[in-house]
TrEMBL record:
Pfam families: Alpha-mann_mid, Glyco_hydro_38N
The name this protein goes by in its record: alpha-mannosidase
Lineage, uppermost ranks: Eukaryota, Viridiplantae, Streptophyta, Embryophyta, Tracheophyta
InterPro entries, sorted: Gal_mutarotase_sf_dom, Glyco_hydro/deAcase_b/a-brl, Glyco_hydro_38_cen, Glyco_hydro_38_cen_sf, Glyco_hydro_38_N, Glyco_hydro_38_N_sf, Glyco_hydro_57/38_cen_sf, Glyco_hydro_b
Entry keyword annotation includes Chaperone: no
Key word Glycoprotein present: yes
Family indicated by similarity: Belongs to the glycosyl hydrolase 38 family.
Source species of the chain: Dorcoceras hygrometricum
Length: 524
């Protein structure tokens, strides 16, 4: 009996050691304490969960959304959103940010009313935060500022209509350098109070890490002065986590092993790894707040792989007590920075050109794929005119400018108009633009016919005038103007000026030589 009692006592003591890790557990279930917030006097590590989802690059936007053509790249944004929403529902302390509304729009339309209601609750609770909020994450070097505004407006309209929210934070983490226009016109003027990005020149980054000036007040306009200033956060390395904390399901990482019934317990080691990485970043950052970007390209396809590890890290790091870890967002992080009442360096110019190493300047994309760049610019002007005519005529269910607006929004992506996507993806961008202009052309023809036949009394009369356009005028091809004109009929040319001021220009159209036989070219 004495020996048996000794064995029982030993087992009980061993169990007490196993339970000392502080996790509440019942028959294997573990509940981690992830509800802590900012702690004054400690280094606060803000874990910002995100997935950077290119609106086309190695694959087309549709292939990225549904997860097809995975021989090129294993990526499925539909899975990301499905998985993230489910993970957020499991723990009210978890948070996630999302940027690319062209993808979210596709996903949102496929959801039931019940799922949509749950997502609205996640947004209202601050668990799901939209950052940037544009149709895409636009390029900042080769885009026109009007196109940047239009694509951002498109995404913000969706967020406003479905969630009654306006994004607070700019999230331009992947464009290849950054323009001061982004800071002012696409930052302050949008109501953003911060902008966050990764790609700055490697020498500039090294200098800023040395003097703790990665975070600055960026003044986007010399003219508007302090009213154009925004808090700008350049990441110390990239938009991925520190080494060893990349938790996609197919990554090679050391999971936090805290189950006493399994081998290889490593809680202490992983907590130490976390603290070393946090202190390293703190050495190049002002204040006791640092941001860890917990994600990368098309990550969170199985979101629990990330959230389970972050749950454990937050729990055990905070139990250790040397630093404080928390789920966060760019908005929470920016509020904490402002609350620190520190002074920040002032920057008044661009983050261009961008080089990621010696003699590795990312400047070729300024001119690459010039045909696509020209096509986007032409259709941008056409889109402006078409929307004006759509307003004057009145919206109908028959035709609209929506397809062209959607295609142009996608085309502003930093791998689209920049010319850095694969050829088949570039073809897809051009195809979408062509489809969009066909619908818009029908609207413009109808609107102009209506307007030239009306009395401008606010009501558009039905017109028998049928107008055609010369979309291939750049190669002097326009069948409507080259056909024989029947006796008693005439060719009417309608020119529409979408600008807000008078314009003098030459309109060139090809016509049949039979009407201009005296000219030398027609006699050849």
């Amino acid at each position: 009996m004495g020996k048996l009692a000794l064995v029982v006592t030993a087992v009980l003591c061993l169990a007490s050691v196993f339970c000392s890790c502080g996790v509440v557990g019942v028959e294997g279930y573990s509940k981690y304490n992830t509800g802590g917030g900012i702690v004054d006097g400690k280094l606060n590590v803000h874990l910002v969960a995100h997935s950077h989802d290119d609106v086309g690059w190695l694959k087309t936007i549709d292939q990225y959304y549904v997860g097809s053509n995975n021989s090129i790249q294993g990526a499925c944004v539909e899975n990301v959103l499905d998985s993230v929403v489910e993970s957020l529902r499991r723990d009210p302390n978890r948070k996630f940010i999302f940027a690319e509304m062209a993808f979210f729009d596709r996903w949102w339309k496929q959801q039931s009313q019940e799922i949509q209601a749950e997502v609205r609750q996640l947004v209202d609770a601050g668990q799901l935060e939209f950052v940037n909020g544009g149709w895409c994450m636009h390029d900042e070097a080769t885009t026109h500022y009007i196109d940047m505004i239009d694509q951002t407006t498109l995404g913000h309209q969706l967020i406003q209509s479905q969630f009654n929210r306006t994004p607070r934070a700019g999230w331009q983490i992947d464009p290849f350098g950054h323009s001061a226009v982004q800071a002012y016109l696409l930052g302050v003027e949008l109501g953003f109070d911060s902008i966050h990005f990764a790609r700055i020149d490697y020498q500039d980054r090294a200098k800023r890490k040395g003097d703790k000036s990665l975070e600055v007040i960026w003044q986007g306009s010399r003219t508007f002065g302090s009213s154009s200033q925004i808090f700008a956060n350049a990441f110390p390395v990239h938009y991925s986590p520190p080494n060893g904390f990349h938790f996609e399901v197919n990554d090679d990482f050391d999971p936090v092993q805290d189950d006493p019934y399994l081998f290889d317990l490593n809680v202490e080691a992983r907590v130490n790894d976390f603290i070393v990485a946090a202190m390293t970043q703190a050495n190049v950052t002002k204040t006791n707040h640092i941001m860890w970007t917990m994600g990368d390209d098309f990550q969170y396809q199985y979101a629990e792989s990330w959230f389970k590890q972050m749950d454990k890290l937050i729990h055990y790091v905070n139990k250790d007590g040397r630093v404080n870890a928390l789920y966060s967002t760019p908005s929470i992080y920016t509020d904490a920075k402002h609350a620190a009442s520190k002074s920040w360096p002032l920057k008044i110019d661009d983050y261009f050109p961008y080089a990621d190493s010696a003699n590795a300047y990312w400047t070729g994309f300024y001119t690459s794929r010039p045909a696509l760049k020209r096509y986007v610019r032409l259709l941008s002007g056409y889109y402006l005119a078409a929307r004006q005519l759509e307003f004057l005529r009145g919206r109908t269910s028959n035709t609209s400018t929506d397809e062209l607006g959607n295609a142009l929004g996608i085309a502003q992506h930093h791998d689209a108009v920049s010319g850095t996507a694969k050829q088949h993806t570039t073809d897809d961008y051009a195809k979408r633009l062509a489809i969009g202009i066909v619908e818009a052309e029908t609207l413009v023809n109808s609107a102009l016919s209506c307007l030239v036949s009306s009395n401008l009394d606010g009501h558009c009369a039905e017109s028998t005038v049928k107008l055609s356009q010369c979309q291939l005028i750049n190669i002097s091809y326009c069948p409507p103007t080259e056909e024989d004109i029947p006796e008693g009929k005439s060719l009417v040319v309608v020119a529409y000026n979408s600008l807000g001021w008078a314009r003098t220009d030459i309109v060139k159209i090809p016509v049949s030589c039979k009407y201009f036989s005296p000219f030398p070219l027609c006699s050849r």
